[in-house]
Amino acid sequence: MAGGRAGVAELRGPRLLNKAVKLSGADLKAALAREARTLGFDCIGVTDPEAIAPAGKHFYEFLEAGAHGDMDWLAASPERRTDPRGLWPGVRSVIMLGVNYGPDENPLHILEKRSCGAISAYAQGDDYHDVIKKRLKALARWLVAMSGDEVKVFVDTAAVMEKPLAQAAGLGWQGKHTNLVSREFGSWLFLGAIYTASDLPRDEADDDHCGSCRACQDICPTAAFPAPYQLDARRCISYLTIENKGPIPHEFRKAIGNRIYGCDDCLAVCPWNKFAQEGRETKLAARAELRAPELSQLARLDDGAFRALFAKSPVKRIGRDRFIRNVLIAIGNSGDALLAHEAERLLDDASALVRGAAVWALSQLVEREKFKSLAAGAMGAEADFSVREEWRRA
Q1: Number of Cβ within a 10 Å radius of residue 296
Q2: Cα-based distances in Å from 42 to 48, 105, 144, 287
Q3: Which of 196, 223, 250 is the C-terminal boundary of a domain?
Q4: Structural domain includes residue 329
């Protein structure tokens, strides 16, 4: 799962001041690819703005089924997503770029460390939006200087269907988990796009190489894939722990385990990942403190400490309260009775979202009689209806 709501960088430039020859066509594309590699991109391809028309049909079906959940920004002006010209009528070519962020260890291993929190691999380092956008802007400035044509830059922050465009540009294919899969980098590619008014030679679209494999579907803890190539975001742990602003639905709490931000299961199990380690950029390396943070320490984060720990991290965008909600679900799933006091301490938190999750975590860790005693003392003083319901249900 990935998503964004706003933001586009638009670049214009002089028409080749002090340049005697203007590159065009195949020569411009070849030079562009060389410059992209120099800037840290691992792959590049070009496609036609009309290339993703078939993907638009599937996107509308996704919306009509309500599978996008509360991500209303996906349903806003869908015509701008399904046709790049709806976002910018002047686009003549779409340049798709990828950066490999393949982790240096199996993300599934931390799921066995129940007293630690599992943060999705892409969020263990600096925010990829910032890292990739800097590279995109640098490449776009180069392209403007070489072509004199207008460009626009996107990285998961506007109405762009990156994955269908990336497949059309030959970077990979959309796998059965709906994410892009590359024969070179597996399921670990950050994507960025440059829309340009330049007319560049197109690359051939990649073919589907999933075959009969269904590993990504079978491993999903919450059965978020109703069929191959279909995702119900409402059941996806990435959606539940990141986009979902309310309590985690009860039916998914046990399945979430110790995943406190996102979920890598369907990506990590992809057999194409064996090719994903080459060319990994050090700027996207994980921070040591985010590889396997202890739940006991995370549960004690106030707003200031949360912001400090996750400075420059995409995790910061969900805010302290939603994050602590996730930590408490993981505490409840830890089986570690020593963590019960962390949940009990948060029964008095200022956030009703946190208090409700603390109730559930306690109900999983303490003996029934103690829990009933805590409930008797807390329910009378609890002003929030949703938290009282957590007590009653537990």
Answers
A1: 17
A2: 21, 20, 21, 22
A3: 196
A4: yes
Report how far Cα 7 is from the mean position of its chain's Cα atoms.
17
Q: What is the rounded CA–CA span in Å between residue 126 and residue 370?
A: 42
pTM of the complete model: 0.89
Q: Are residues 177 and 68 in the same domain?
A: yes
Q: Count of alpha carbons within 13 Å of 247, Cβ hemisphere only?
A: 22
Q: Which two tokens stand for residue 377?
A: 């003392």
Helix axes 319-333, 352-365, angle to 10 degrees: 10
Q: Are 296 and 190 in the same domain? A: no
Give 352-391 pLDDT, tens digit per residue: 999 999 999 999 999 999 999 999 988 888 999 999 999 9
Which residues are identified as catalytic? 156
Q: What is the pLDDT of residues 86-95, one digit of tens each?
A: 889 999 999 9
Contacts of 193 (CB under 8 A, 6+ apart): 94, 95, 96, 97, 136, 153, 154, 155, 160, 162, 165
Let me know if residue 276 belongs to a domain: no
- Residue 103 reports pLDDT greater than 60: yes
Helix (H) or strand (E) holding 100: strand 93-100
The whole-number average pLDDT for the span 302-326 is 97
Q: Indicate the number of domains in the chain.
A: 2
**Any domain includes 2:** no
Q: What is the CATH number of the domain that holds 112?
A: 3.40.109
Please give the DSSP secondary-structure letter assigned to residue 202: P
SS3 state of residue 144: helix
- Nearest alpha carbon to residue 300 among 366, 354, 362, 242: 354
* DSSP 8-state class, residue 352: H
- Is residue 176 within 8 A of residue 140, CB to CB? The reply is no
The single-letter code of the amino acid at 339 is L
Residue 360 to residue 341: CA distance in whole angstroms: 13
Structural domain including 305 reads 215-269+285-393
What is residue 204's predicted lDDT score, i.e. its pLDDT?
97
Tell me, yes or no, whether 275 lies in a domain.
no
Same domain, 64 and 162: yes
